[in-house]
């Protein structure tokens, strides 16, 4: 593997380098483009580069020279997921050949915020097609348009989904930070699998307009980066808020509940790293309440799928209708398109979720309304809110997921378990942070809490990160290191 001078450089370091004139904006773009040219043919993490990135960097260089920097991301190249609309020369396809050539009417508001903050949109990342809501047997990171994204820590392992391209790309230093989207686990899971910090904000904190949808009640974009501080910078740029006050290292006075039921016990080495993390949190001054289990933790899984199927149909049909032009006009036409090009779109797995969604009725259907009510009540009032109120908690904690599995295009993903669902279904925030490695594969731990508690979660994650510093660069190994065990 060749050396790369920007490897592991953070947003903070890049900002300082630009201010000190150690690099110019165009130089950063050129260096990252060269990195992508070297490694993306293998990783397939970036689905498309922005042909105007260098031109935009030159414009930003002139603004800096004239004393008019735009904002906290001035001149910083950022990668975004290919389900986020950009009104430029790039496509917005969710990885599907069905949307190649479709035209959007405007930038998504989060893209507008990035541009306002001075970011250079370097390109778009591959993803699990339709954000992994296409098949019950899908391989995370595969799309008809982009192929199979690989994990830079072990090239035969899944980058996890659906923000797989963003996870793989940022881990491999294709950019300092990126934007993913999550419905349930699609920021946390690839972040954990690729040794990143990923934050899923409270649903509604960031506008979902212009993002190809799954669920109006669960979808959100969110930042993915190699450090907690970088995630805070990116979240601040997207919201206009300052999260720097969360960057403190003492957890004295904080109460953290350990969510053991369902979230421990599916992988011993992962449990060991989580127990090590709990010991660190105690040393940092946190009061640990163990266990602090949600009584409803396993009661709404089937209802979540029902909600997602109804909202997928409604959301996609509205999205298609809002495009300036599109090869497919609704979900029914999308299913027919996929069937017409089976060799390209359906070579490994089907489109069961799309077909199940098409069979659903409108959002006035009693089945949908009942399922939505149950999801909200049991994830919020009887779930996260109840356990946090009972124990007076600042956050809940569990391992994010087990080490990632081998890519299997025939049988699909081999997911053992994870902690994303409670916050995802509730629409509440969650964050994952690196916690060590198992056979060279990254493992993360997650914190989640009440609505709009992003600053608290950032503080917990930052304190833990600074005390442990588990993040390390990938080696692009062919496979997992079977000679190594669970390591710091």
The string of secondary-structure elements, in order, is: HHEHEHEEEHEHEEHEHEHHHHHEHEEHE
Radius of gyration: 21 Å
Please mark out the parts with pLDDT under 50 across 5 or more consecutive residues, or reply none.
none
- Work out the helix count: 15
User: Structural class of the secondary structure composition?
Assistant: alpha/beta
What proportion of the residues form beta strands (DSSP E)? 5-15%
Largest sheet: 12 strands, mixed
What is the share of helical residues? 25-40%
Question: What's the count of strands?
Answer: 14
The first-to-last residue Cα distance is: 23 Å
- Estimate the mean pLDDT confidence: 97
Shape: globular
Looking at this protein, list some descriptive labels:
alpha/beta; twelve-stranded mixed β-sheet; 15 helices; globular
Describe this structure in words.
The protein is 37% helix and 14% strand. With 488 residues, the chain is an alpha/beta fold. Helix 9 crosses helix 13 (366-391). It has helices spanning 11-19, 25-43, 53-65, 109-116, 164-171, 188-193, 228-239, 268-283, 301-321, 331-340, 342-345, 352-358, 366-391, 421-426, 454-468; strands at 46-49, 77-81, 120-125, 142-143, 147-148, 177-182, 197-200, 220-225, 255-258, 287-289, 395-399, 430-438, 441-448, 486-487.
């Amino acid at each position: 593997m060749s050396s790369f001078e920007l490897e592991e450089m953070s947003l903070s370091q890049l900002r300082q380098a630009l201010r000190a004139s150690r690099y110019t904006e165009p130089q950063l773009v050129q260096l990252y483009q060269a990195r992508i040219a070297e490694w993306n043919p293998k990783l397939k993490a970036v689905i498309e580069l922005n042909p105007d990135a260098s031109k935009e960097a030159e414009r930003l260089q002139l603004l800096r020279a004239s004393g008019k920097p735009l904002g906290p991301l001035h001149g910083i190249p950022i990668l975004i997921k290919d389900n986020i609309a950009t009104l430029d020369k790039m496509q917005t396809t969710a990885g599907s050949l069905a949307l190649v050539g479709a035209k959007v009417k405007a930038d998504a508001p989060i893209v507008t915020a990035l541009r306002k903050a001075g970011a250079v949109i370097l390109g778009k990342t591959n993803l699990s097609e339709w954000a992994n809501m296409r098949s019950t047997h899908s391989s995370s990171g595969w799309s008809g348009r982009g192929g199979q994204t690989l994990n830079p820590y072990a090239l035969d392992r899944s980058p996890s989904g659906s923000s797989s391209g963003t996870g793989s790309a940022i881990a491999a230093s294709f950019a300092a930070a990126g934007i993913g989207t999550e419905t349930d686990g699609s920021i946390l899971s690839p972040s954990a699998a690729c040794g990143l910090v990923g934050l899923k904000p409270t649903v509604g904190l960031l506008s979902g307009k212009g993002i190809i949808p799954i669920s109006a009640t669960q979808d959100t974009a969110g930042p993915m980066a190699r450090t907690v501080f970088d995630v805070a910078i990116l979240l601040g740029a997207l919201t206009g808020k300052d999260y720097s006050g969360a960057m403190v290292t003492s957890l004295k006075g904080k109460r953290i509940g350990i969510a053991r039921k369902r979230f421990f016990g599916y992988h011993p080495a992962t449990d060991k790293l989580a127990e090590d993390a709990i010991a660190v949190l105690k040393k940092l001054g946190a009061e640990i309440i163990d266990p602090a289990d949600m009584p409803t933790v396993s009661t709404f899984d089937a209802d979540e799928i029902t909600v997602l199927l109804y909202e997928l149909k409604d959301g996609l049909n509205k999205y298609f209708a809002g495009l300036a032009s599109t090869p497919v006009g609704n979900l029914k036409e999308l299913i027919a398109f996929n069937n017409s090009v089976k060799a390209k779109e359906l070579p490994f797995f089907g489109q069961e979720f799309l077909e199940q969604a098409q069979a659903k009725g409108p959002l006035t259907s009693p089945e949908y309304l009942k399922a939505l009510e149950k999801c909200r009540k049991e994830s919020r009032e009887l779930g996260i809110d109840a356990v946090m109120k009972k124990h007076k908690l600042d956050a809940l904690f569990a391992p994010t997921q087990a080490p990632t599995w081998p890519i299997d295009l025939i049988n699909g993903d081999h997911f053992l378990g994870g902690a994303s669902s409670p916050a995802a279904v509730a629409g509440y925030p969650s964050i994952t942070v690196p916690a060590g490695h198992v056979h060279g594969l990254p493992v993360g731990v997650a914190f989640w809490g009440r609505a709009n508690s992003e600053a608290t979660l950032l503080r917990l994650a930052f304190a833990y990160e600074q005390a442990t510093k588990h993040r390390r660069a990938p080696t692009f190994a062919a496979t997992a290191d079977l000679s190594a065990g669970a390591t710091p």
